[in-house]
Design goal:
Layout (H helix, E strand, L loop, with lengths): L8 E16 L4 E17 L3 E5 L6 H8 L7 E6 L2 E2 L8 H5 L2 E4 L3 H4 L6 H11 L5 H14 L16 H13 L5 E5 L7 H18 L2 E5 L3 H7 L2 E6 L2 E6 L3 H4 L3 H8 L40 H5 L5 E2 L5 E2 L26
Parallel strand pairs: 3-8, 3-9, 6-7, 7-8
Antiparallel strand pairs: 1-2, 1-4, 4-5, 9-10, 10-12, 11-12
Length: 346
């Protein structure tokens, strides 16, 4: 299952599920489950960036945190270099965690306001017994310089920095143990547009320098286009499309096409009107039967409400979970989404 990509697999996700129980009553009886991630499978190859996109609440962040085992999986397998981390005991995870890291969406919430930047970035090195004292300070300074900060920033606190600088600090902390795999959870959503491009270019430069593999989570398709080698589209806990091609030009799932059509472009007159999806996103507590997108899909038939579509390979590793993939007229999707940050040098 190489999806048209050549190279060694670093991460293999197989039938991953993450359900959150809902309880109530005097005895806190389980009344149902939030199906945040519901049976998804994909691979991430060494050195690549896999973009994971979708609306807020579709399960992107939950998927990323479950892959790192920050939260336990309900079912499925997560193989890191062939080892299933779902079955690993807590004590065995320490060595594994040195190879996996995360940059959270909100840098202010992920930095301890009581710690100086030197202590925040140096904490992974200290906890793992890699460095302390003067050597720790030098290693932290080296990390800060990698992300464009300097010695003057070592003894400052998080509130003394801008949003963009705080995110760079979080990136430096994620790099501290020289991991192989980093989950980037909407790393530019809390920064100004003027500095987003610089942050993105920095992440691409660091990826080349440290031979990193990224799972890049975002709802900003312009950012995903700039960063990703492949793109997976998620809707209500399911992956509906995945492609190593340019999904922005060749989307084959109605939901993916609607997302692309809604992206702001410099001159909207150059393309047709954005497709407005009918209704609201259904509840993950009680998702629709069959295809989860069928209540909002203008192409839906009775089959869509009864039968769950499987991810089918439409050629060259372009996977689509739609009964009528390749048969629908989704309109002509021009390649108009701007390349975020392509002209900005860091």
């Amino acid at each position: 299952m190489s999806y048209g990509v050549h190279g060694d697999k670093l991460i293999e996700v197989k039938n991953l599920k993450k359900f959150f129980p809902l309880s109530g009553g005097v005895f806190r009886k389980v009344l149902g489950y939030v199906r945040a991630v519901d049976d998804i499978s994909f691979d991430i190859f060494k050195g690549e960036t896999l973009g994971l996109v979708g609306e807020s609440g579709c399960g992107k962040t939950t998927a990323g945190r479950t892959i790192l085992r920050l939260i336990p999986a309900t079912a499925g397998e997560i193989l890191f270099e062939g080892e299933d981390i779902v079955k690993m005991k807590r004590g065995d995870l320490k060595d594994l965690r040195r190879n996996m890291s995360i940059v959270f969406q909100d840098p202010m919430a992920s930095l301890d306001p009581r710690l100086t930047i030197k202590n925040a970035v140096g904490e992974p090195l200290l906890v793992n017994g890699i460095a302390r004292g003067h050597r720790l300070r030098n290693m932290v300074l080296e990390l800060l310089e990698k992300v464009g900060l300097n010695e003057d920033h070592l003894n400052r606190f998080p509130h003394e920095f801008s949003g963009g600088q705080r995110q760079r600090i979080c990136i430096a902390r994620a790099l501290a143990l020289r991991p192989k795999f980093i989950v980037m959870d909407e790393p530019t959503s809390s920064t100004d547009v003027s500095v987003q491009a610089q942050t993105l270019n920095l992440m691409k430069d660091l990826q080349k320098e440290f031979d990193l593999t990224y799972l890049f989570i975002s709802h900003n398709l312009s950012v995903v286009k700039h960063m990703s080698d492949r793109v997976a589209v998620m809707y209500l806990g399911k992956i509906v499309e995945m492609t190593p091609k340019d999904i922005f030009k060749q989307a084959m799932h109605p939901y993916s096409a609607a997302l692309v059509s809604a992206v702001p472009v410099p001159d909207p007159s150059l393309r047709g009107r954005a497709e407005v999806l009918a209704g609201e996103v259904p509840s993950p507590i009680n998702p629709p039967s069959g295809c989860r997108f069928h209540p909002r899909c203008r192409f839906a038939t009775e089959r869509c409400s009864e039968e769950i579509p499987e991810l089918r390979d439409m050629g060259d590793g372009h996977l689509v979970a739609c009964h009528y993939a390749g048969e629908l007229d989704l309109g002509h999707i021009e390649e108009l989404i701007p390349e975020s940050g392509t002209t900005v040098q860091v």
